[in-house]
Amino acid sequence: MLIDAHQHFWRYDPVAYDWIGPGMEVLARDWLPADYAPLRERHGIEATIAVQARGDEADTAWLLEQARANPWIAGVVGWLDLRADDAGERLAHWLAQGPLLGVRHQVQDEADPAACLADAAFNRGVAQVQRAGLVYEVLLRHDQLAAALDFCQRHDAAPLVLDHLGKPDISGEAAAYARWEGQMRALSASPSVNVKISGLVTEAGRDTGGRLDRAGIVRHLDAVLALFGPGRLLFGSDWPVCQLAASFDEVLALAHDWAAPLSAGERAAIFGGNARRIYLGAQRTR
């Protein structure tokens, strides 16, 4: 059983997807379920979780349409305005439209991420997400992680998922690694926090020969394995965004190579079992 717990689809529009800038031309086109299907067939992927890529409820609606049309899309992590007075009603509306499994907000893009995570209205919205049996996904960069600790402790009654290991600075700089590791260690003390091992190829540097810093990626994967254990890690490809640095095949191979020394049960958890429990288990009990 292989579940890709983090991938994206979109119909490209340069205004709606203004985060796709110069040097990201590979992403500046439609990326649809039909484009993912050959990867799924080649690697025996049982299911995927489609994650929002822009802060617009129209994106949530469109992703739910794709999930309804493609049963192998197990569900959607969508977007809604968590600060809105009617956030609960909006959440109920989208739950009725299809397999909504979670909600994500691009806190990393806020002018003041710490203020966003401390905002009373935002926290009420997150609490409503959790009461509905959905997962809230935390999207922050390594230099913003300190703001997540109090937030995660406030919302520790239901699973939280930190995307992309908190986007570490995989540069080889000792101080950067130490700061990130210390922040992740603090987050790991909250048992509700789970971590997606995803999005790392786009955070890593390259050597003088242009080769991806695999050793740097593995070092960070080893750290979260030690801190969170295999029961709180989930594989995600971050396709098609990963293609800025590596193909889907390369991302999956790197993850499999890293996990090879683990037991069969631990690998099964990371590559599917944890996603099924955290996302689909909640869906079954709503």
- At the first level of CATH, the class is Alpha Beta
Classify the secondary structure makeup into a structural class: alpha/beta
Number of strands: 8
CATH architecture call: Alpha-Beta Barrel
The proportion of residues forming helix, as a percent range, comes to 40-55%
- Uncertain parts: none
Assign the CATH superfamily: Metal-dependent hydrolases
Order of helices and strands: EHEHEHEHHEHEHEHEHH
Main beta sheet: 8 strands, parallel
Strand order of the largest sheet: 1-2-3-4-5-6-7-8
Q: What is the general shape?
A: globular
Binned strand content = 5-15%
Tally the helices: 10
State the CATH topology: TIM Barrel
Mean pLDDT: 95
Distance between the termini: 24 Å
Rg from alpha-carbon coordinates: 18 Å
The total number of structural domains is: 1
Verbal overview:
With 286 residues, this protein is an alpha/beta fold. The protein has a single domain, classed as TIM Barrel, CATH 3.20.20.140. It contains ten helices and eight strands.
